Amino acid sequence: MFESKLPNLGTSIFSQMTTLANQYEAINLSQGFPEFDAPELLKKQLNHYVLEGMNQYSPSSGVPRLQQQIAELAQRKYGAEINADQQVTVTSGATEALFVAIQAIVRRGDEVIIFDPAYDSYQPAIELAGGKSVNIALHAPDYVIDWQAVASAVNKNTRAIIINTPHNPSGKTLKQQDINALKAIVSAHDLYVISDEVYEHITFDGQPHLSVLRDNALFAKSFVISSFGKTFHSTGWKMGYCIAPASLAVEFRKIHQYVTFSSFTPAQHALADMLEQQGEHVDELSEFYQQKRDVLSNALKGSRFTILPSEGTYFLLLDYSDVSELNDVEFCQWLVEQASVAAIPLSVFYQQPSHDKVIRLCFAKSDETLLQAAEILCQL
After folding, report:
1. Of the candidates 247, 278, 309, which is a domain's last residue?
2. Nearest-CA neighbor of 224 among 10, 77, 367?
């Protein structure tokens, strides 16, 4: 009999809800992808490089010009001095980068601390490396990390901590006191950090993104991972990158070369052009998505939902306690079938299901779509 390496995993909730949304012709605010297209320059340059014949393998670590643009972006945004050739690796999406970083450092019997609600790729990657995830639950409405609980969870088997800021699905961002507490624990126990920063350019209300790249001591033990898909509205391209100290980048690249070897070559050249010629796009993302957040949250103010704070990402959480007694999975199924709006239940992001009555909406949509969804939700 075939023995699965991941016996407890089935079809992801994102695929399930999108299938339901299509079946019921619902407004899909579930899966986290933009409704609008990638920038015109990016599409134009992709076509240009395809026609120019840039269609063979790139260097495994990435097209040098793109590596350099990434290093310059890190310097401009965070003051980080990055060696593009030695420390920047272009990957086939952030999920590949997360997988490779985990495989690079986690050994059989190691433990990795993650925070629930957590992005669903972390735990399977840890288990495939022979490790074990230690899940620390965060709860509505504030989703604040109890760093004393983190310190208490560390033992001789602890290898790493995975952080995600801005955080999917809660929309929370780490503050300076969080970074200080993380650094103290990492230093005291000689741990590694995998910092998932795919929404790094989407923070709201004037709050800066506190990248691990801002702190030299913390970065020395870290893999910092980001996503061009989130930054340039091109999730289907599956383009991301990892910045790490040279010694860790060497180990990262050993595994990366046998996962994808290299990533989509013409897209790398197009992304380099985009960063070089329209770098202001990155700086405008926060304002762009804050407007989307405010359109949706303002339109929902007359509803029976409680709107939880969104400090970053393109997600908004709603507490539906005053709307239904159903659990969140049942409520999301009812919502798509009866109200024609698709959302994501928060409990699926937990190892031990949370009893918070909270759902996640994606507001990376047109204002028309957001207002249409809000009108329906306000009638519940």
Report:
1. 278
2. 77
